[in-house]
């Protein structure tokens, strides 16, 4: 396994947000974390990236324990997160935002130029808009920039927190096509989503979180037809 999360407990103060969560990702897999509002998706991604420290449990990346490592070291080891709400610097240019994603490689100017060319190939609109402030982008473009910035860290594991949120269905379809394409080219990807049908349509496997626990897990095709999954998302 590329990533192996075992029995994680994560708290906000006294409030337990993750309860014994176990979660695996194999090399080249595309795995989705599903769950309604407040079920723990973001908390799990933040725990993996070291932004939150688990009270119990272990996280291994390439067989190395990372649950006590700093976020900087985890990013440098190859885990990159495009955060919920995108986390862009609105006043800064598209280019500057991308370069911030390459912070752990800041001395490798040549490598960063090469990676930037890859990102521009994937998202040509970002090349056109590279000198514009990030705040002037449309929602879809901003999400592309968030993904592009995460890629600038040259991850071995790319994690996306709700890439579809706030976007029109056509734009969501476009973004998910690109995510699937990246995965087809070998990138290992984790996508947290409320949009279960969309996420399961491109994923290999999925995990459903309910109040901080994994309630259902399995192959994406099986989850798409699982009555319990359908029930969780009725009205969603
Ligand atoms: N900073 C925080 N302080 C205290 N409690 C928090 C904090 N962030 C999240 N929580 C709580 O932890 C639980 C899990 O929240 P989390 O943000 O991980 O859910 P989520 O599945 O990502 O939801 P959403 O789809 O709305 O993003 C919720 O009960 C939430 O209220
Ligand atoms: Mg969230």
Defining traits:
single chain, alpha/beta, Rossmann fold, six-stranded mixed beta sheet, 38% helix, globular, binds adenosine-5'-triphosphate, binds magnesium ion
Describe the fold and architecture.
The protein starts with a strand and ends with a helix. With 236 residues, it is an alpha/beta fold. Helix 3 (94-101) runs parallel beside helix 6 and helix 4 runs antiparallel to helix 6 (139-152). The model has no long low-confidence stretch (mean pLDDT 95). It has helices at residues 41-48, 71-77, 94-101, 109-122, 124-128, 139-152, 169-184, 196-202, 220-224, 227-232; strands at 3-12, 15-25, 30-34, 56-61, 64-65, 79-82, 157-161, 188-193, 205-210, 213-219. Helices cover 38% and strands 26% of the residues. It is globular and about 45 Å long. The protein has ten helices and ten strands. The chain folds into two domains: 1-78 and 156-236, Rossmann fold, CATH 3.40.50; 83-154, no CATH class. The strands form two sheets. Strands 6-7-8-3-9-10 form a six-stranded mixed β-sheet, sandwiched between helices. Strands 2-1-4-5 form a four-stranded antiparallel β-sheet, with helices on one face. The structure holds adenosine-5'-triphosphate (ATP) and magnesium ion. The site of adenosine-5'-triphosphate has 13 residues, from strand 2 and helix 1.
């Amino acid at each position: 396994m590329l990533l192996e999360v075992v029995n994680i407990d994560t708290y906000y103060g006294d409030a337990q947000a993750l309860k014994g969560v176990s979660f695996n990702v194999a090399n080249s897999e595309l795995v989705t974390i599903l769950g309604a509002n407040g079920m723990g998706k973001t908390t799990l991604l933040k725990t993996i990236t070291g932004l939150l420290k688990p009270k119990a449990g272990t996280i291994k990346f390439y067989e190395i324990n990372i649950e006590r490592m700093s976020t900087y070291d985890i990013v440098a080891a190859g885990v990159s997160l495009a955060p919920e709400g995108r986390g862009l610097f609105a006043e800064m240019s598209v280019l500057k935002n991308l370069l911030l994603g390459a912070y752990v490689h800041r001395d490798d100017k040549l490598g960063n130029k090469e990676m930037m060319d890859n990102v521009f190939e994937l998202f040509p609109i970002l090349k056109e808009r590279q000198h514009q402030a990030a705040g002037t982008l449309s929602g879809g473009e901003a999400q592309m920039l968030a993904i592009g910035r995460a890629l600038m860290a040259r991850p071995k594991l790319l994690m996306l927190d709700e890439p579809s949120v706030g976007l029109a269905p056509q734009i969501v379809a476009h973004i998910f096509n690109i995510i699937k394409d990246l995965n087809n080219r070998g990138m290992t990807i984790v996508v947290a989503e409320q949009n279960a049908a969309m996420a399961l349509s491109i994923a290999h496997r999925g995990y459903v979180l309910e109040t901080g626990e994994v309630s259902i897990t399995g192959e994406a095709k099986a989850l798409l037809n699982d009555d319990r999954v359908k029930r969780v998302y009725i009205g969603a």
